[in-house]
Amino acid sequence: RAKWNSAPFLFFETEEDASATEHLQFSGQLHGALEREEFELHYQPKIDLASGRICGAEALLRWQHPQQGLVLPKRFISVAEQLGMISPITDWVLDTALAHSKQWQVGGEPVAISINVSARSFHSPGLIAGIRQALLKAGVDGSQLEVEITEDTLMADLDHGAGILEELSKLGVSIAIDDFGTGYSSLSYLKRLPINTLKIDQSFLQDMANDPRDVAIVRSIIELGHNLNCKVVAEGVEAQGVREQLKGLGCDLVQGFYISKPLPDAGFREWLSHSTH
Ligand code: C2E
Ligand code: CA
Ligand code: CA
Ligand code: CA
Protein backbone atom coordinates (compact mmCIF):
# COMPACT_ATOMS: atom_id res chain seq x y z
CA ARG A 1 0.00 0.00 0.00
CA ALA A 2 1.25 3.43 -0.86
CA LYS A 3 1.16 5.96 1.97
CA TRP A 4 -1.34 8.77 1.73
CA ASN A 5 0.64 11.48 3.44
CA SER A 6 3.12 12.26 0.72
CA ALA A 7 0.82 11.90 -2.26
CA PRO A 8 -2.81 11.96 -1.20
CA PHE A 9 -4.41 10.88 -4.45
CA LEU A 10 -1.85 8.36 -5.64
CA PHE A 11 -3.37 5.60 -3.60
CA PHE A 12 -3.50 1.98 -4.63
CA GLU A 13 -5.15 -0.82 -2.80
CA THR A 14 -2.98 -3.40 -4.52
CA GLU A 15 -5.16 -6.37 -3.69
CA GLU A 16 -8.20 -4.60 -5.11
CA ASP A 17 -6.57 -3.06 -8.11
CA ALA A 18 -7.25 -4.12 -11.66
CA SER A 19 -4.37 -5.89 -13.39
CA ALA A 20 -2.30 -3.75 -15.76
CA THR A 21 -3.85 -5.12 -18.94
CA GLU A 22 -7.35 -4.97 -17.56
CA HIS A 23 -6.61 -1.43 -16.45
CA LEU A 24 -5.72 -0.41 -19.99
CA GLN A 25 -8.69 -2.18 -21.46
CA PHE A 26 -11.12 -0.69 -18.93
CA SER A 27 -9.68 2.80 -19.34
CA GLY A 28 -10.95 2.97 -22.88
CA GLN A 29 -14.28 1.33 -22.13
CA LEU A 30 -15.14 3.29 -18.99
CA HIS A 31 -15.23 6.49 -21.00
CA GLY A 32 -18.80 6.83 -22.10
CA ALA A 33 -20.08 4.10 -19.75
CA LEU A 34 -22.20 6.69 -17.91
CA GLU A 35 -23.69 7.99 -21.16
CA ARG A 36 -24.29 4.45 -22.40
CA GLU A 37 -26.10 3.78 -19.10
CA GLU A 38 -23.95 0.77 -18.29
CA PHE A 39 -23.83 1.41 -14.53
CA GLU A 40 -26.38 0.08 -12.13
CA LEU A 41 -26.88 0.05 -8.38
CA HIS A 42 -27.58 -2.94 -6.20
CA TYR A 43 -29.00 -2.46 -2.73
CA GLN A 44 -28.24 -4.35 0.44
CA PRO A 45 -30.49 -4.00 3.50
CA LYS A 46 -29.30 -3.11 6.99
CA ILE A 47 -31.24 -4.69 9.84
CA ASP A 48 -31.74 -3.38 13.36
CA LEU A 49 -30.73 -6.28 15.60
CA ALA A 50 -32.99 -5.34 18.51
CA SER A 51 -36.22 -5.00 16.51
CA GLY A 52 -35.35 -7.14 13.49
CA ARG A 53 -36.55 -4.28 11.26
CA ILE A 54 -34.91 -2.92 8.15
CA CYS A 55 -33.53 0.53 8.79
CA GLY A 56 -31.60 1.33 5.65
CA ALA A 57 -29.86 0.05 2.55
CA GLU A 58 -26.40 0.49 1.06
CA ALA A 59 -26.10 1.30 -2.64
CA LEU A 60 -23.35 -0.72 -4.35
CA LEU A 61 -22.19 0.12 -7.84
CA ARG A 62 -21.95 -2.41 -10.70
CA TRP A 63 -20.82 -1.99 -14.27
CA GLN A 64 -22.82 -3.87 -16.88
CA HIS A 65 -19.92 -4.50 -19.26
CA PRO A 66 -20.95 -5.25 -22.86
CA GLN A 67 -18.69 -8.33 -23.09
CA GLN A 68 -17.87 -9.29 -19.51
CA GLY A 69 -21.25 -8.91 -17.89
CA LEU A 70 -21.56 -7.59 -14.36
CA VAL A 71 -18.25 -6.14 -13.17
CA LEU A 72 -17.74 -5.50 -9.44
CA PRO A 73 -16.42 -2.14 -8.21
CA LYS A 74 -13.02 -3.37 -7.02
CA ARG A 75 -12.12 -3.95 -10.67
CA PHE A 76 -13.00 -0.50 -11.96
CA ILE A 77 -13.32 2.12 -9.18
CA SER A 78 -9.60 2.86 -9.03
CA VAL A 79 -9.47 3.09 -12.83
CA ALA A 80 -12.39 5.52 -12.76
CA GLU A 81 -10.61 7.56 -10.08
CA GLN A 82 -7.46 7.79 -12.15
CA LEU A 83 -9.47 8.81 -15.22
CA GLY A 84 -11.07 11.64 -13.23
CA MET A 85 -14.47 10.00 -13.71
CA ILE A 86 -15.32 9.35 -10.08
CA SER A 87 -17.10 12.63 -9.31
CA PRO A 88 -19.58 12.30 -12.18
CA ILE A 89 -20.09 8.68 -11.10
CA THR A 90 -20.77 9.79 -7.51
CA ASP A 91 -23.33 12.30 -8.83
CA TRP A 92 -25.01 9.57 -10.84
CA VAL A 93 -25.01 7.24 -7.81
CA LEU A 94 -26.61 9.97 -5.69
CA ASP A 95 -29.34 10.76 -8.19
CA THR A 96 -30.11 7.12 -8.90
CA ALA A 97 -30.05 5.94 -5.29
CA LEU A 98 -32.22 8.83 -4.08
CA ALA A 99 -34.74 8.31 -6.89
CA HIS A 100 -34.99 4.60 -6.11
CA SER A 101 -35.10 4.95 -2.34
CA LYS A 102 -37.92 7.47 -2.63
CA GLN A 103 -40.10 4.60 -3.88
CA TRP A 104 -39.29 2.33 -0.94
CA GLN A 105 -41.48 2.20 2.10
CA VAL A 106 -41.73 -0.11 5.06
CA GLY A 107 -44.85 0.35 7.18
CA GLY A 108 -45.30 3.79 5.63
CA GLU A 109 -41.78 4.83 6.59
CA PRO A 110 -39.06 5.67 4.06
CA VAL A 111 -35.91 3.52 3.94
CA ALA A 112 -32.68 5.51 4.35
CA ILE A 113 -29.94 5.08 1.77
CA SER A 114 -26.16 4.90 2.20
CA ILE A 115 -23.74 5.65 -0.59
CA ASN A 116 -19.99 5.07 -0.80
CA VAL A 117 -17.82 8.07 -1.54
CA SER A 118 -14.17 7.49 -2.40
CA ALA A 119 -11.30 9.82 -1.58
CA ARG A 120 -11.04 11.84 -4.74
CA SER A 121 -14.75 12.43 -4.86
CA PHE A 122 -14.99 13.23 -1.14
CA HIS A 123 -12.28 15.89 -1.36
CA SER A 124 -13.47 17.35 -4.65
CA PRO A 125 -14.77 20.93 -4.47
CA GLY A 126 -18.22 20.07 -5.83
CA LEU A 127 -19.24 17.38 -3.34
CA ILE A 128 -21.41 19.40 -0.97
CA ALA A 129 -23.10 21.38 -3.74
CA GLY A 130 -23.72 18.11 -5.61
CA ILE A 131 -25.33 16.48 -2.57
CA ARG A 132 -27.46 19.52 -1.80
CA GLN A 133 -28.62 19.63 -5.42
CA ALA A 134 -29.34 15.90 -5.58
CA LEU A 135 -31.44 16.05 -2.39
CA LEU A 136 -33.41 19.01 -3.76
CA LYS A 137 -33.91 17.38 -7.14
CA ALA A 138 -35.15 14.14 -5.58
CA GLY A 139 -37.18 15.94 -2.92
CA VAL A 140 -35.56 13.80 -0.25
CA ASP A 141 -34.63 15.03 3.24
CA GLY A 142 -30.93 14.96 4.18
CA SER A 143 -31.77 12.71 7.12
CA GLN A 144 -32.56 9.93 4.60
CA LEU A 145 -29.00 9.90 3.30
CA GLU A 146 -25.80 8.49 4.76
CA VAL A 147 -22.33 8.89 3.29
CA GLU A 148 -19.82 6.08 3.88
CA ILE A 149 -16.14 6.98 3.82
CA THR A 150 -13.06 5.14 4.99
CA GLU A 151 -10.58 6.45 7.53
CA ASP A 152 -7.97 6.66 4.76
CA THR A 153 -10.26 8.97 2.80
CA LEU A 154 -10.67 11.24 5.80
CA MET A 155 -6.98 11.18 6.69
CA ALA A 156 -5.90 12.08 3.15
CA ASP A 157 -6.61 15.64 4.24
CA LEU A 158 -8.06 15.72 7.74
CA ASP A 159 -8.58 19.48 7.96
CA HIS A 160 -10.43 19.56 4.66
CA GLY A 161 -12.33 16.40 5.55
CA ALA A 162 -13.44 17.87 8.88
CA GLY A 163 -14.97 20.83 7.02
CA ILE A 164 -16.81 18.52 4.63
CA LEU A 165 -18.22 16.48 7.51
CA GLU A 166 -19.48 19.68 9.20
CA GLU A 167 -21.22 20.69 5.97
CA LEU A 168 -22.77 17.24 5.60
CA SER A 169 -24.10 17.27 9.13
CA LYS A 170 -25.58 20.74 8.54
CA LEU A 171 -27.54 19.12 5.67
CA GLY A 172 -28.73 16.45 8.10
CA VAL A 173 -26.75 13.80 6.22
CA SER A 174 -25.26 11.01 8.38
CA ILE A 175 -21.64 9.97 8.18
CA ALA A 176 -20.40 6.40 8.52
CA ILE A 177 -16.80 5.27 8.82
CA ASP A 178 -16.51 2.25 6.52
CA ASP A 179 -14.12 -0.69 7.01
CA PHE A 180 -13.57 0.52 10.58
CA GLY A 181 -10.56 -1.06 12.22
CA THR A 182 -8.51 -1.54 9.06
CA GLY A 183 -7.10 1.99 8.66
CA TYR A 184 -3.77 3.26 9.86
CA SER A 185 -5.03 6.35 11.61
CA SER A 186 -5.20 7.23 15.29
CA LEU A 187 -8.67 7.40 16.80
CA SER A 188 -8.53 10.99 17.96
CA TYR A 189 -10.56 12.27 14.99
CA LEU A 190 -13.56 10.36 16.32
CA LYS A 191 -14.12 12.66 19.27
CA ARG A 192 -14.08 15.91 17.36
CA LEU A 193 -15.91 15.05 14.14
CA PRO A 194 -19.66 14.53 13.60
CA ILE A 195 -19.56 10.80 12.92
CA ASN A 196 -22.79 8.85 13.35
CA THR A 197 -21.87 5.29 12.47
CA LEU A 198 -18.96 2.88 12.66
CA LYS A 199 -19.05 -0.04 10.24
CA ILE A 200 -16.99 -2.93 11.54
CA ASP A 201 -14.99 -4.37 8.68
CA GLN A 202 -16.12 -7.77 7.52
CA SER A 203 -12.65 -9.26 8.02
CA PHE A 204 -13.36 -9.26 11.79
CA LEU A 205 -16.71 -11.02 11.41
CA GLN A 206 -16.13 -13.85 9.04
CA ASP A 207 -14.21 -15.99 11.52
CA MET A 208 -15.78 -14.65 14.69
CA ALA A 209 -17.39 -17.96 15.55
CA ASN A 210 -13.96 -19.63 15.78
CA ASP A 211 -11.55 -16.92 16.79
CA PRO A 212 -11.88 -15.26 20.22
CA ARG A 213 -9.47 -12.54 19.11
CA ASP A 214 -11.98 -11.39 16.50
CA VAL A 215 -14.67 -11.37 19.19
CA ALA A 216 -12.42 -9.19 21.38
CA ILE A 217 -11.90 -6.70 18.56
CA VAL A 218 -15.58 -6.60 17.65
CA ARG A 219 -16.57 -6.13 21.31
CA SER A 220 -14.08 -3.25 21.65
CA ILE A 221 -15.32 -1.49 18.51
CA ILE A 222 -18.93 -1.75 19.70
CA GLU A 223 -18.01 -0.32 23.09
CA LEU A 224 -15.94 2.46 21.54
CA GLY A 225 -18.73 3.36 19.13
CA HIS A 226 -21.35 3.47 21.86
CA ASN A 227 -19.16 5.60 24.12
CA LEU A 228 -18.92 8.07 21.25
CA ASN A 229 -22.69 7.99 20.64
CA CYS A 230 -22.25 6.20 17.32
CA LYS A 231 -24.37 3.39 15.92
CA VAL A 232 -22.34 0.30 15.15
CA VAL A 233 -23.00 -1.73 12.00
CA ALA A 234 -21.47 -5.13 11.35
CA GLU A 235 -21.05 -5.81 7.64
CA GLY A 236 -20.42 -9.10 5.89
CA VAL A 237 -22.60 -11.17 8.22
CA GLU A 238 -22.91 -14.55 6.52
CA ALA A 239 -24.27 -16.83 9.22
CA GLN A 240 -27.02 -16.99 11.82
CA GLY A 241 -24.50 -17.74 14.57
CA VAL A 242 -22.57 -14.54 13.92
CA ARG A 243 -25.79 -12.54 13.88
CA GLU A 244 -26.70 -13.97 17.30
CA GLN A 245 -23.21 -13.34 18.63
CA LEU A 246 -23.39 -9.71 17.47
CA LYS A 247 -26.78 -9.27 19.09
CA GLY A 248 -25.31 -10.56 22.34
CA LEU A 249 -22.48 -8.06 22.08
CA GLY A 250 -24.96 -5.18 21.70
CA CYS A 251 -24.19 -4.39 18.06
CA ASP A 252 -26.88 -2.12 16.59
CA LEU A 253 -27.19 -3.11 12.94
CA VAL A 254 -26.20 -5.97 10.67
CA GLN A 255 -25.73 -6.25 6.95
CA GLY A 256 -24.60 -9.25 4.94
CA PHE A 257 -25.39 -12.22 2.74
CA TYR A 258 -27.14 -13.93 5.67
CA ILE A 259 -29.83 -11.24 5.48
CA SER A 260 -29.66 -10.54 1.75
CA LYS A 261 -27.21 -10.18 -1.09
CA PRO A 262 -27.17 -6.78 -2.76
CA LEU A 263 -30.19 -6.69 -5.13
CA PRO A 264 -31.21 -4.54 -8.11
CA ASP A 265 -34.01 -2.04 -7.40
CA ALA A 266 -36.81 -4.35 -8.54
CA GLY A 267 -35.43 -7.29 -6.55
CA PHE A 268 -34.91 -5.11 -3.53
CA ARG A 269 -38.52 -3.93 -3.63
CA GLU A 270 -39.63 -7.52 -3.92
CA TRP A 271 -37.47 -8.37 -0.90
CA LEU A 272 -38.98 -5.46 1.06
CA SER A 273 -42.51 -6.60 0.31
CA HIS A 274 -41.83 -10.18 1.45
CA SER A 275 -39.48 -9.60 4.32
CA THR A 276 -40.76 -9.87 7.83
CA HIS A 277 -37.77 -7.83 8.99
P1 C2E B 1 -17.73 -1.78 0.97
O1 C2E B 1 -18.34 -0.43 1.01
O2 C2E B 1 -16.97 -2.24 2.14
O3 C2E B 1 -18.95 -2.75 0.62
C1 C2E B 1 -19.13 -4.02 1.17
C2 C2E B 1 -18.82 -5.10 0.16
O4 C2E B 1 -19.04 -6.38 0.77
C3 C2E B 1 -19.70 -5.10 -1.08
O5 C2E B 1 -18.90 -5.54 -2.16
C4 C2E B 1 -20.76 -6.14 -0.74
O6 C2E B 1 -21.36 -6.72 -1.89
C5 C2E B 1 -19.94 -7.15 0.00
N1 C2E B 1 -20.72 -7.94 0.95
C6 C2E B 1 -21.90 -7.63 1.53
N2 C2E B 1 -22.29 -8.62 2.36
C7 C2E B 1 -21.34 -9.56 2.31
C8 C2E B 1 -21.19 -10.85 2.96
O7 C2E B 1 -21.99 -11.28 3.76
N3 C2E B 1 -20.05 -11.54 2.66
C9 C2E B 1 -19.11 -11.06 1.78
N4 C2E B 1 -18.05 -11.82 1.53
N5 C2E B 1 -19.23 -9.88 1.16
C10 C2E B 1 -20.33 -9.13 1.43
P2 C2E B 1 -18.93 -4.83 -3.57
O8 C2E B 1 -20.35 -4.47 -3.92
O9 C2E B 1 -18.16 -5.67 -4.51
O10 C2E B 1 -18.18 -3.46 -3.31
C11 C2E B 1 -16.80 -3.44 -3.00
C12 C2E B 1 -16.35 -2.06 -2.64
O11 C2E B 1 -16.47 -1.16 -3.74
C13 C2E B 1 -17.20 -1.42 -1.54
O12 C2E B 1 -16.76 -1.92 -0.31
C14 C2E B 1 -16.90 0.05 -1.75
O13 C2E B 1 -15.68 0.40 -1.15
C15 C2E B 1 -16.73 0.13 -3.26
N6 C2E B 1 -17.95 0.67 -3.85
C16 C2E B 1 -19.14 0.08 -4.07
N7 C2E B 1 -20.02 0.92 -4.64
C17 C2E B 1 -19.38 2.11 -4.76
C18 C2E B 1 -19.75 3.41 -5.26
O14 C2E B 1 -20.90 3.66 -5.67
N8 C2E B 1 -18.79 4.37 -5.22
C19 C2E B 1 -17.55 4.16 -4.73
N9 C2E B 1 -16.67 5.17 -4.72
N10 C2E B 1 -17.17 2.97 -4.24
C20 C2E B 1 -18.07 1.96 -4.26
CA1 CA C 1 -19.56 0.75 2.24
CA1 CA D 1 -16.98 -1.80 4.20
CA1 CA E 1 -13.90 -2.14 1.50
Automatic annotation (TrEMBL):
UniProt-recorded name of the protein:
Diguanylate cyclase DosC
Span of domain EAL: 23-276
Originating organism: Thiogranum longum
Bilayer-crossing residues are none
Signal peptide per UniProt: none
